[in-house]
Amino acid sequence: MNNQKRQKDDIKVPEPTLRRLPWYLSNAKLLKQKGEHFVSSTQMSKEINIDVSQIAKDLSYVKISGRTRVGYDISELINVLEDFLGFTNIHKAFLFGVGSLGGVLLGDSGLSHFGLEIVAAFDVNPEKVGTSINGIPIFHSNEFKQKMKEYSVKIGVLTVPIEIAQQISDTMIAGGIQAIWNFTPFRIRVPEQIVVQNTSLYAHLAVMFNRLNFNNDIKK
Amino acid sequence: MNNQKRQKDDIKVPEPTLRRLPWYLSNAKLLKQKGEHFVSSTQMSKEINIDVSQIAKDLSYVKISGRTRVGYDISELINVLEDFLGFTNIHKAFLFGVGSLGGVLLGDSGLSHFGLEIVAAFDVNPEKVGTSINGIPIFHSNEFKQKMKEYSVKIGVLTVPIEIAQQISDTMIAGGIQAIWNFTPFRIRVPEQIVVQNTSLYAHLAVMFNRLNFNNDIKK
Question: From the centroid of its chain, how far is CA A50?
Fold first, then answer.
């Protein structure tokens, strides 16, 4: 086991830190495009409006050290962050439920730039099974266990209707899936060792609508 | 001003509550599909694994009261939650940046079921300007101010490259946009009265990858 792995074993990075690291990455990429070579945490703090001590603390989790007076080497910062965030390794995934959102995610080549490659999808709709989207084959759901043996997949993307979200999650986990990216607004229950990332576009919409109405009501 | 409006004026619902309400909604919809008529907070607590007192507290923000021994009327709960979350009113939106994710959101008819209707999109790519996706016209970005006068729009969906995310946000706000749904991994800065909802798929991927690696390292 190398040092990097050992470090990961010892320290579980807090989720808020993990959510901020992509901001530093996108800021570093932007500065690089502008022709900059170094960035200080003070400069970054002004650019993205995060406390300078918070930035230093967050970056202490990744293997990079700034130089006095000049700050971080931008190219190094980009490489280290992309590597740390898992964007440089391709993680293979299966997608479950080729509805409107599922179809959209199969078509979005953008996800592969960030390390996620959907290699196959599952559905029960006879009009979809046997076809492919963007070169990704769509299999019948009852072929899942067999396909787990053929592909080396740890991640499942969940875009099924809510009434089967729990059942499909259970099936995924029984088949060996270790992480579920849940796009449904349903709160799935999983064993402790299974990673769940909830991305409910509808929950985000709800927050936005409510805040917008709140602001408009205040103005009245 | 009616009572509901007054209530919104007085109480700003906490964001964690707003994020949980769609879970209650999807659970209620599921129970309705199963033919149930009433649900107690205890039952809901078991179904979605949230503390019963938390559920009661969250639901106290919406205008619904349960009945002793039988609980909440499920149909009423669905109506009240959908209304409260803003899913029953159509909110018109402009989309900025018809790249891969932008194109995907224009094609996703699913968003309109939750109250968001993208009525027009903006880009500078001459191959896209003048065309339409899913019936939604794509205009040149410099037509934005004019189009704000034609459409009644308060929401802007931001799916541009990170290097212009701030500039386009500034343009949106100057033109009268009041809420920005930011899909970029860039942290935009806005005046206090502007609502920003960040939905960075890449930040969610980063959290998932990191947790998955952490679990796999532990097993070694």
Answer: 22
The beta-strand segments (E) located in chain A are 38-39, 72-73, 91-96, 116-123, 132-133, 136-140, 155-158, 179-182, 195-198
Contact A210, B86 (CB under 8 A): yes
Whole-angstrom distance, CA of residue A184 vs CA of residue A199:
7
Considering chain B, what percentage of its residues have pLDDT values greater than 70? 92
DSSP state, A93? E
Residue A199 to residue B204, Cβ atoms within 8 A: yes
- What does the alpha-carbon distance between residue B39 and residue B96 come to, in Å, rounded to a whole number? 42
Strand order across the A91-96 sheet: A132-133, A136-140, A116-123, A91-96, A155-158, A179-182, A195-198
- Put simply, whether A120 touches B (Cβ < 8 Å) is no
Residue from B123, B23, B204 nearest A197 by CA: B204
Neighbours of B17 (CB within 10 A): 17
Count residue pairs from A and B with Cβ separation < 8 A. 215
Place of tokens 């993307």: A157
Give the residue on B whose Cα is nearest the Cα of A183.
Answer: B201
Other CB atoms within 10 A of residue A10 CB? 8
Distance CA A119, CA A92 (A): 6
Residue A108 has pLDDT above 70, yes or no: no
A13/B contact by beta carbon, under 8 A: yes
CA distance A202 to A66: 40
Average pLDDT over residues B100-120: 79
Chain A residue with minimum CA distance to B3: A217
The single-letter DSSP state of residue A142 is G
Q: What is the per-residue pLDDT for A70?
A: 84
CA atoms within 13 A on the CB side of B9: 10
CB contact under 8 A, A199 and B197: no
Concatenating the DSSP letter of every residue in B116-159 gives EEEEEEEE--TTTTT-EETTEEEEEGGGHHHHHHHS---EEEE-
Q: Does B53 touch chain A (CB under 8 A)?
A: no
Shortest alpha-carbon distance between residue A152 and chain B (Å): 14
Q: Bigger pLDDT: A82 or B139?
A: B139
Answer yes or no: is the ipTM higher than 0.85: no
